[in-house]
Amino acid sequence: MIETHNLRKTFKSRRGPVEAVAGVDLDVKKGEIFGFLGPNGAGKTTTLRMLSTLLPPTSGEATVAGFDLRREPAKVRYVIGYVSQEGSSAPEIPGRTELVIQGRLYGMTKPRAIARAAELIESLELADCADRPTKTYSGGQKRRLDIGIGLMHLPQLLFLDEPTTGLDPQSRARMWDEVRRLRDTGTTVFLTTHYLEEADALSDRIAIIDQGKIVALGTPDELKRQVAGDVVVVGTDQASDRVLELLRGQPFVREATAADDLVRLYVDRGETAMPQIIRVLDSAGIPLASLSLNRPSLDDVFLRQTGRSLREAA
Amino acid sequence: MKLLKDTWLMFQRYLLVFLRNPAWVAIGVIQPLLYLVLFAPLLKSLVQVHGFPGGGAYNVFVPGLLIQLGLFGASGVGFGLIAELRAGVIERFRVTPVSRFALLLGRALRDILTLVVQSLILLLLAIPFGLKPTVVGVIVMLGLVALIGLGMSSLAYAAALALKSEDSYAPLIFTLSLPLLLLSGVLLPLDLAPGWLQDIAKANPLSYAVNAARDLFNGKGFDQAVFEGLAIMAALAVVGVLIGARRFTRAIA
């Protein structure tokens, strides 16, 4: 559905050129939910804007829904939908009107657009508010309307930019269901997010982007398997540098990083590593604040690839 | 064909936005109305002054006031566009196959309609004060206002798209519209001005519009000034639309 080769975008700034997207290769398959995960400023939105014809790439090749992005953007536009972070409706206009106008911009006849709008209002549960101006909508209603606007013309491929940013947990869960339902009806979904949980729970496959480059690509499980073993997190009282130094050299520790007062240790078997950690710290006279054993998360994948925590970076 | 259809759709949408805030029609009329009530009477005693155009104080002042309405009304339209940029509406349209020209023209047509309605209201309100309009004069006058509306609002949209924030857009239009107004002869006829001021005013396209507008109301009929004014405003409209449409097609980062 999407194929890119060495896609790049360089912006000019006062301090010289800034490479926002530095050679991205992607292969998004038909009918999957593809998650694009990365901290703010990593190049997610820039990539998305290029793929949705909003921004011309500086260089590289991309095919979207079978059309060449650079040579046939007009054809790409007919088969994609795009839901931006900012929203998409005017505060004065009722949601139903926005939906109908959107359909007609794609060449639908008026009766067809009205019927399709009614369909979406029903399935997105917007019946209560569809005929009110959108400024009266709740955050969740507004987001669902945005999705509806993006879906009016039955696109093969839907781009969602940070679909749940700013939503309460309930609306977020609702949005996740909506996205899964889309995939189940055959729509390919390409979504960006800086929420680990969202990428993990929703995506069939994930690309992790940092500083304009893809640092990892695969299913959530594949990615987590790359970080083999367990993660032991040691909490200390302002002694994380010393703890890191002491534990990094231990034979059972494969990798160790420190952030704030937490030291993360990547070990083969957590349950045998933990007593040894306690012994090492005890003999060095360092008091433990906390100790926990975790399965690797996508954050650990990010941490391993970039040396930074996504939670910190975001 | 697609351009016409898309323009019509966009026009309908923006008209709807506008009709949801009908107060804006009135707000646009209030400022010129204040000029009509609180400033125009000062001109009555100037009618005798050498160089003051004929036709009576109101037939001289009101046509210029309509040009001012066009200038101020159209230069403020960028605020709405900046709000829409922020709300993601422009992005949404740019991802659709809608004609880029239509994104501009649909809005500009709505602005023109607003200006024409406001001008009619102002003309009607000016009659009790002593304005003596002719039907042909009013029709051509509205055409002139429409051309200014198209040209100036297109330029205003181009500026709004380039600046993307009210904080830089507002000072720009206030800084530009004041000299344009002073050098157009709206408030006092430029015939009263010293030679050097008249020379500078010749570089201001709006001064030709004001001359044309005055001649439409002073019984001179279709003289050279009217054709000049219409031609220059038409040229302004073409240039404005080209610049505006170019901005709409370019990426908005």
Salient structural properties:
heterodimer; A: 314 residues; alpha/beta; Rossmann fold; Alpha-Beta Plaits; 12 helices; elongated; B: 253 residues; mainly alpha; 76% helix
Layout of helices and strands, plus pairs?
The complex is a heterodimer of chains A (314) and B (253).
Chain A: E1 2-13, E2 16-28, E3 33-37, H1 44-51, E4 59-64, E5 67-68, H2 73-79, E6 80-83, H3 95-105, H4 110-123, H5 139-151, E7 157-161, H6 169-184, E8 188-193, H7 196-202, E9 205-210, E10 213-218, H8 220-226, E11 230-236, H9 240-248, E12 253-259, E13 262-267, H10 270-284, E14 288-294, H11 298-306, H12 310-313
Parallel strand pairs in A: 3-8, 3-9, 6-7, 7-8
Antiparallel strand pairs in A: 1-2, 1-4, 4-5, 9-10, 11-13, 11-14, 12-13
Helix pairs in contact in A: 3-4, 3-5
Chain B: H1 2-19, H2 23-38, H3 40-43, H4 57-75, H5 78-86, H6 89-95, H7 100-126, H8 135-163, H9 166-182, H10 195-201, H11 205-217, H12 224-249
Helix pairs in contact in B: 1-7, 2-4, 2-7, 4-7, 4-8, 4-11, 5-8, 7-8, 7-12, 8-9, 8-11, 8-12, 11-12
